[in-house]
Amino acid sequence: xxxxxxxxxxxxxxxxxxxxxxxxxxxxxxxxxxxxxxxxxxxxxxxxxxxxxxxxxxxxxxxxxxxxxxxxxxxxxxxxxxxxxxxxxxxxxxxxxxxxxxxxxxxxxxxxxxxxxxxxxxxxxxxxxxxxxxxxxxxxxxxxxxxxxxxxxxxxxxxxxxxxxxxxxxxxxxxxxxxxxxxxxxxxxxxxxxxxxxxxxxxxxxxxxxxxxxxxxxxxxxxxxxxxxxxxxxxxxxxxxxxxxxxxxxxxxxxxxxxxxxxxxxxxxxxxxxxxxxxxxxxxxxxxxxxxxxxxxxxxxxxxxxxxxxxxxxxxxxxxxxxxxxxxxxxxxxxxxxxxxxxxxxxxxxxxxxxxxxxxxxxxxxxxxxxxxxxxxxxxxxxxxxxxxxxxxxxxxxxxxxxxxxxxxxxxxxxxxxxxxxxxxxxxxxxxxxxxxxxxxxxxxxxxxxxxxxxxxxxxx
Amino acid sequence: xxxxxxxxxxxxxxxxxxxxxxxxxxxxxxxxxxxxxxxxxxxxxxxxxxxxxxxxxxxxxxxxxxxxxxxxxxxxxxxxxxxxxxxxxxxxxxxx
Lengths: 461, 96
Fold this sequence. Notes:
The complex is a heterodimer of chains A (about 450) and B (about 100).
Chain A: E1 6-10, H1 14-27, E2 31-35, H2 38-43, E3 51-55, H3 63-73, E4 79-83, H4 88-96, E5 101-104, H5 109-140, H6 150-162, E6 169-172, H7 179-188, E7 197-201, H8 207-215, H9 232-235, E8 240-244, H10 251-262, E9 265-267, E10 274-276, E11 280-285, H11 289-294, H12 300-306, E12 309-312, H13 321-337, E13 344-345, H14 347-355, H15 361-375, E14 380-381, H16 388-393, H17 416-430, H18 435-442, H19 446-455
Parallel strand pairs in A: 1-2, 1-3, 3-4, 4-5, 6-11, 6-12, 7-8, 8-11, 13-14
Antiparallel strand pairs in A: 9-10
Chain B: H1 11-48, H2 54-84
Helix pairs in contact in B: 1-2
């Protein structure tokens, strides 16, 4: 299959260089470029080489020195050494210096084809992994968490102080406030960033399986345990384990977790070997753990261990200055994905977004914008593309709730007349029966309000 | 009666002899394997490439002949050297 990869062939023997060119380009479909010495190859290293086929006995700089220089300048560039010396010591030396493979001459051409394919695939995968790693690191860098409010600035300051320490961190906050994002930011900004970051959602795993999930199990530990399994604590060794929704952990498992934190040791389910862990623990919950302790549903000693360094994430409604910033961020992200690059919010849509209390926090806002971007077909995302719960909320003060919330019953169709009736009853309740104020707040005329009250048989108290 | 050529070498001479022999073996390997790479490689190319043009086929056959002749010259040189003297009197650079 033709490939766009460019292969440099470095050999002073013209007939061999030409032979390799025939096979590399005509038979295997790569692009090839020939060099008769190491020096000219080194000068052309920045010109797009994806792999180098390198002879060792070269005029001027010998092949070993060329290999060393390539690895110094471009450690990720695969080099396959072809040598007529056929000495095992030479092969070992070149492999130690970073050559991807070694072939003695006369070259077994079908084997060389496989060697080239594997080396290119490995280099492509290495590049891809590096790109994804950088992408992941960028996304979780504190500078890249979208927030401008003073409340979040305080959180970042607090979290920055603890990133290099190993003490357990407990992240508290309502659902959707970004607890996992903060946990990731702590991990990827710490000295452990090259080690695993392992997430366990304690609420999503059945209680019976959670112990084995966390600590692993030995073969035959229970029905279905057909082989030994390494748990999340072992996987996270040297890195960070993030236990989300830790308030859901049952009491028996809490004592095992306490041992893992205090003594840094645990046993796999059904095993006698004591496993030592160096994983750093970050946990999160949207429950009030102190209340859980009072209710005897959460061990007090575990609570004190976990909450050595508590971090409270404020809900979105308490940091309103972040709403528009986040909304614009999500609009950019989703409009790019949906190929609607010029999409903007209408003034009214922004007002509605700002006024809504976002009980589902950033996650709810993100979903609302994603939905809006899909629905919007013009250059503007208007309030009509926002969820009904956001649209209908705008007429109420922050302390006032609509009589009916669409957010909680998306699959229920409410008759329009019922909505109007509820809106009027709600307005009259809030204004204590003051018709003038109710009409103003409903943005309708007084006469209209009277007419509708008659229609719906509503009496002002 | 022919005089025996056997004699005992000093340790320094033995080390030198070893290095010279190794160097000669390396050079020889290289000098044999280089034309063989071309000969085997181009023969394989002709055998595995039914789509070669007539010019290419002629060119590759000519390269096989040329590299074969190189091998013949090498064999001649090695035979002459082995008649003339021992390894300790040889100069590995003659194979360059």
